[in-house]
Amino acid sequence: MTEHDERDRRPRAGAAHAPGDADIELYDVHKAFGAVAAVRGISLAVRRGEFFSLLGPSGCGKSTTLRILAGFEEPDQGRVIIAGRDMVGVPAFRRPTNLVFQRLALFPHMSVFENVAFGLRMKGTPRAEIARRVRDALMLVQLDPMTDRKPHQLSGGQQQRVALVRALVNDPRVLLLDEPLGALDLKLRVQMQQELKRIQVHVGTTFVYVTHDQSEALTMSDRIAIMHEGRVLQVDSPRDLYNHPRTQFVALFVGDTNLLHGRVRDTARGGVTVDVGPILVHAQPTEEIAAGAVHLSVRHERVRIAPSLPPDLPNRFPGRVREVVFSGASVRYTVAVSGGALDLFALQAYDGGPVPFGAGDDVVVGWEVEAATLLRA
């Protein structure tokens, strides 16, 4: 069997794509540290030129996976393919990757120019080419007027951009980023998210980005892999992850949701009715779930709240406002239904006027049938 045939034979994780367009392919990768299993049978593919994020809570295995890609850790089992080559046993400095850490590790005694040029000089790149490539890289991140400054003379965001182009100037096939924005304040982090995405689109390099921040991953990524306890639970676009979670963990980790626990009562007439404690909820059917215990995920912003709702809305429940939380752009209501037996959350965009409901107000909450995602319990 030829190498090309072998590549065509390999299974693909996540969304389907044509053979040969993946920069990274992992197959049944395991890694343990003593008795602790950090990575448990990960298989996934990252497409060429994609901004791909590994998202999950601390300790889920995402940074270990990144270090395996970088060559700083060797898997106990499985295959690691980068740019069509098997990388198991290949040292980090021989891989077509560069890694950007949260701790930037800029050389404090070197200027911006010297920091960016360091890797090129280590490879013996001609001086004229170094000057051109460093100049072009700094222009890309709008730091060309600051070539002679030292790192301590830069802001946090500027230091982050220097670290980024220092990695990119070496023209890696894949750039690996391990929570590089974690040390920045919120406003600067949001600005750098936009900057990172702009740069990635401009250079076309494959980015693999590790984060525990769901909004960060949703903002920048083409696709996201949700990790939990060393496993990949779902790989999808940000929109599909948010709207169509496949597990309880994904539904709760990505965004805010009402996660309701119940049991299927009926699947007649093209729909599903679920007993959720004191209420009966209507949902769309799925091929995988037809009976038994289930979860229902209803995003907070999909829940309508009003003094009354149309009688033809299938999911409609009277209740009383228990709590109101104002966060500037939105208002979140906690509504007790069925005499306080169940709390439902509704989120409304804030338009600048008076908040329409207060604690103790009688309201009706509800949602469309398609707003409820049915999950296996």
How many beta-strand runs?
A: 20
Percentage of residues assigned to helices: 10-25%
**H/E series, N to C?**
HEEEHEEEHHHEHEHEEHHEEEEEEEEEE
Low-confidence stretches: 1-19
- If you consult CATH, what is the topology of the largest domain? Rossmann fold
CATH superfamily of the largest domain: P-loop containing nucleotide triphosphate hydrolases
Strand content: 35-45%
CATH architecture of the largest domain: 3-Layer(aba) Sandwich
**Radius of gyration, CA atoms, in whole angstroms:** 25 Å
**Helix segment count?**
9
In angstroms, what separates the terminal alpha carbons? 43 Å
Chain-averaged pLDDT: 89
Give the overall shape, derived from the CA principal axes.
globular
* Major sheet description: 6 strands, mixed
Strand order of the largest sheet: 6-7-8-3-9-10
Our count of domains comes out at 2
CATH class of the largest domain: Alpha Beta
Q: What would you call the structural class?
A: alpha+beta
Q: What's the structural blueprint in terms of helices and strands?
A:
Elements: H1 3-9, E1 22-33, E2 36-47, E3 51-55, H2 62-70, E4 77-82, E5 85-86, E6 97-100, H3 112-122, H4 127-140, H5 156-168, E7 174-178, H6 186-203, E8 206-211, H7 214-220, E9 223-228, E10 231-236, H8 238-243, H9 248-253, E11 257-266, E12 272-276, E13 279-283, E14 293-299, E15 304-306, E16 315-326, E17 330-337, E18 342-349, E19 362-367, E20 372-376
Parallel strand pairs: 3-8, 3-9, 6-7, 7-8
Antiparallel strand pairs: 1-2, 1-4, 4-5, 9-10, 11-12, 11-14, 12-13, 14-20, 15-19, 16-17, 16-19, 17-18
